[in-house]
Amino acid sequence: MKLFSVPVFSGLVLALVACGGTSSAPATPTSAVPTPAPAALAASNEQHVKTVEVPAAIRAFVDAPDRDAEDKKLDAGRKPAELLAFAGIKPGMKVADLAAGGGYTTELLARAVGPTGVVYGQNSPFIIEKFAEKPWTARLAKPVNKNVVRVTREFEDPLPPEAKDLDAVLIVLFYHDTFWMKTDQARMNAAAFRALKPGGVYIIVDHSGRAGTGTTEVQSIHRIEESVVRKEVPQAGFKLAADAEFLRAPDDKRDWNTAPFAAAERRGTSDRFVLKFVKP
């Protein structure tokens, strides 16, 4: 598999760290925040979604025969139909995909919102320069992605001024990487909040770290403790509305590197949390 292929890139600058291509210092440890107990979840009105019902239309987008074969190989481990359904993506929506990489998730969003919708696909200049230029450009040349707006901006201010009143902002398998990349997460989350319309959703999917690890393993094995995200994102004004189980893997010991080259045959089998935050 080529280093810069679209599937290999999806999820992030994954190969850079896995192959020792950066000298960034390890992330500063973050104190662990216990995951809320069931009673606390009930008090906060957070929904725990065990099974996501996938509409036939979304299943059809995912099963489309013209999707790239390499993309489809990732589907079993990524469960894109469940993700789109959980996020509530529908035709005509305006959405954003932060850290789009080579565009695996971006294209699925483009298919789901259809020709009357808009998808802002964002990458930072660093990602474009080091990894994504070729696959991202090739992805956007496909007719199915004509409703995608290419955005190259830093994560602290990831979307252009015209990206406003959005229905959804997604960041998939990347939030952890913003730590070793020295991103200001507070500014990034605030920017997502501003871009969304009231009732809009901020969806975060990431590889879960072991209890007590906080952000200490974001670079070494590409994992983050779920409680860190649960604590940080509401500080931007969001309300945690739901979490879903469709990417959970109870048998995962969460002690191995999830970057594609390092994960090898275990790619797509990590325990991942899926959180839905809402702008009140």
Supply database-style keywords:
disordered N terminus, 8-stranded mixed beta sheet, alpha/beta, Rossmann fold, 280 residues, 8 strands, globular
Low-confidence stretches: 1-43
Name the helix and strand elements from N-terminus to C-terminus, one letter apiece.
HHHEHHHEHEHEEHHEHEHE
Question: How many strands?
Answer: 8
Percentage of residues in helical conformation: 25-40%
Task: Please summarize what this structure is.
The protein is α/β, with parallel strands linked by helices.
Structure description:
It is a single chain. The chain is an alpha/beta fold. The protein has helices at residues 6-9, 14-18, 38-44, 56-62, 69-78, 80-87, 104-113, 125-140, 177-180, 185-195, 226-232, 260-263, and strands at residues 47-49, 94-98, 118-123, 148-152, 166-172, 196-207, 239-244, 272-278. An 8-stranded mixed β-sheet has the order 1-7-8-6-5-2-3-4, with helices on both faces. Helix 8 links the parallel strand 3 and strand 4. 33% of the residues lie in helices and 18% in strands. The longest helix has 16 residues, at 125-140. The radius of gyration is 17 Å and the shape is globular. The relative contact order is 0.18. It has one domain: Rossmann fold (3-Layer(aba) Sandwich), CATH 3.40.50.150. The chain is built from 12 helices and 8 strands. Helix 4 packs across helix 6.
